[in-house]
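Hi team,

Filling in the usual template for the complex we talked about on Friday. All components are listed, including any nucleic acid strands or ligand strings, so the model treats them as one assembly.

SUBMITTER: L.P.
PURPOSE: interface mapping
COMPONENTS: two
RESIDUES: 954
SEQUENCES:
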Amino acid sequence: MQNLLSELRSLVGETHVLSEENLSAWEQDWRKRARGKALAVVLPGNTAEVAAVVQACARHRAQHPDQHLSIVPQGGNTSLVVGATPDESGRQIVLSLQRLNQVRALDAANQTLTAEAGCVLQAVQEHALNAGYLFPLSLAAEGSCTLGGNLGSNAGGTQVLRFGNTRELCLGLEVVTAQGEVWNGLSGLRKDNTGYDLRHLFIGSEGTLGIITAATMKLYPLPAAQLTAWAVVPSMQAAVTLLGLAHRHLGAGLTGFEVMGQFALRLVDKHFKQLRVPLWLDGPFCVLLENSDHESEAHARLQFEGLLEAALTDGCVTDAVVAENLSQAKALWQVRESISLAQSQEGLNIKHDISLPISNIPAFVQSTDAALAQAIPGVRLVNFGHLGDGNLHYNVQAPEGVDAAAFLREHEPKVNSLVFDAVTYFGGSISAEHGIGSLKLHQLVHYKSPVALTMMRSIKRALDPHNLMNPGRVLSV
Amino acid sequence: MQNLLSELRSLVGETHVLSEENLSAWEQDWRKRARGKALAVVLPGNTAEVAAVVQACARHRAQHPDQHLSIVPQGGNTSLVVGATPDESGRQIVLSLQRLNQVRALDAANQTLTAEAGCVLQAVQEHALNAGYLFPLSLAAEGSCTLGGNLGSNAGGTQVLRFGNTRELCLGLEVVTAQGEVWNGLSGLRKDNTGYDLRHLFIGSEGTLGIITAATMKLYPLPAAQLTAWAVVPSMQAAVTLLGLAHRHLGAGLTGFEVMGQFALRLVDKHFKQLRVPLWLDGPFCVLLENSDHESEAHARLQFEGLLEAALTDGCVTDAVVAENLSQAKALWQVRESISLAQSQEGLNIKHDISLPISNIPAFVQSTDAALAQAIPGVRLVNFGHLGDGNLHYNVQAPEGVDAAAFLREHEPKVNSLVFDAVTYFGGSISAEHGIGSLKLHQLVHYKSPVALTMMRSIKRALDPHNLMNPGRVLSV
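RESULT (copied from the run log):
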């Protein structure tokens, strides 16, 4: 292995191969679910160096198959499913894309931006904004996650309802294959029917097929105004009805539709006294709506008023407020975004990132709430999420006064089975936006169609026959 | 082979295996570029029968490899690239999806529709419309093309600017694999990060990896009003400037942006005397714009007026009209859609379905127009297309008075090379929305990245190792 490290040092420079120092920033995952041991952390400075590193590793793997060398690509190391940190073998190279952090081009007439994989998401947003455009991908980790990681995991976030997942924002990729070849698939094309769509195969493959080094992404004109409203709904079914009304009244202006259960809001109220949580005692769920208008704030407000009037008449909304200004709007979003932290303050819980056909969400929530209450009396549900995309973060918290760690030890597998069985029954997915990583590896085998798994394994073997790329993630080949 | 036909008859019924009758409706492609000879046309009645037919063919292929049996999936047989008709070997089964023509479900709350592959596109549009929803895929062949063919070829059309290609409208697939297994990947989910995206791999694979038997597609609320405008622009660069203005003024309301060169409009004026072609003598290009508004016609008109005022001030538009009513709007669209027929009336020409980064279109057109004029004095260019998507139908017509057939014989390969070399130079695609089929097979090998071709071949071998599915299309394995 020392020969390999010497070769890598000659390829990317002495200071960009770390092996003796403290590597915990690369070895420990974001949620602290697993701590691995890397053979080394390698930080190439450009695409050619990434390719050279992969070639060197592929040669080493071929010459010393018994050493089981492999590569873990890493971006901002914010995976929620232990997808980007090394295992404990000490035989994995962490290939960090951090130094590939240039925005290569912004093409205003084509409304596209080409950036390298290691660009921090927020830097990409700001680059677009400075040119007068919106890059709509937005999620909690945006200050540290990277574009490459967003693509590798097909990240979701709060704007999917209007703009789609990361996948839908991508027009082209540059990829280093498992053989260390560079595929230049960067393209600002909105139409290109020349063979199989390799781009969509790499997006969401979590670094198991190759390494995304750069991408061309869509931009949008900045909206003239964004307004936020907060509504109380008498039931989850009413929230679904409100969503339908919002689509009709706001059209593509509807850029956010978040649902929050009363217990989730109670936790924010309890742990963040400085935040004002509006109307949370008045119903079982509240909804946060965002209207992005290309015309004017006055027009956006008129649209919102029309929608809320119709909703109050219908009865699917019992009370509502519209933010009067930007700081009120930010305060409403802050309540929504504080739910994750508030539940941590309350103690560890069992998290689920699930999606369902929107029409099935009311029945899913009703029957799963009841089944959990019966299985674990007093259990508390932190239910919130992107209802407009059918995506719920349906988290299960210990009963009041019960030790959270003990609750997880005793109940986690049982709760996961109960929730995922229900998700499957209602036609949903066990991972909506976080991916599989190693955390959901065994659940994927259980819940995914065997026909689909067979095809996935064939593709993995076809593109990475020596299992060099991020083994043990997504598929246990 | 007779044993196989007997087995297929027992699987799908005597009357649904055609071999003795006149099969020209299945053997002759839409553009009459190639006529093949099928061993038989098989019309299964449901997904299970499709799977049984594929299994029988796979067994036969394994037992008699020397007979080179294979399957050509076919929908409405409107491929423009000879992608869905048999070759001349007499060893191909045409597997028609025509009898799988049921809309299985329409889920209003989820805004999705699940339909079988053999549904005619127009029937799907009407089913959605009857429930109060828009299914936005729209193209010239919609009266006879099928949803399965649209998915297999990732069809484009006139609404891509706002709603994307067929790919972007699809949430889930049901597929019969090359092994004859059924993958039920139907899903109404907008987020599902559970492994490689098989859906996007099958979409656009032109029947070479498996057979799409059903799909779940997105629906949208019907707009309250649709307005159409027609503008004269002084140059292609001005058309690109107008597109940017239209994005800013109309936001997601901009659902159509078509450019038409003066010679294309001259042909419509010449061959369809009953149509009134507005303003075509006043500039080198005209643009047709469509604004879909979720509010009202009055609002749509106000938006258009704001845009056109800004465009006239800027100088990127020199004159414009807005349709006063629906019949005027239809008449404008009819002019646009008559270009294809008008050029046929004028005589055969050399067609190209290309795409480019929008920012490169003015330079591409200027330099390629000049290069063609130099290579073939008097050559005439029928240049029109979906500028909003960067997609041009850049067709090359014989000089006035020159015999079209002789022109094609003499110039087609040279013209294709000149155009495709220029497309490649400007970062474009040689097939924007029509696919590869067998017509562009050899051009793909020439113009596509070798790294991409290697990956495509690996995927083909992984999913269809015996080359049973539509061989000789997309890839010459």
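MY TAKE: The domain at 2-96 of chain A is CATH 3.30.43.10 (Uridine Diphospho-n-acetylenolpyruvylglucosamine Reductase; domain 2). Chain A has a mean pLDDT of 97.

Thanks, L.
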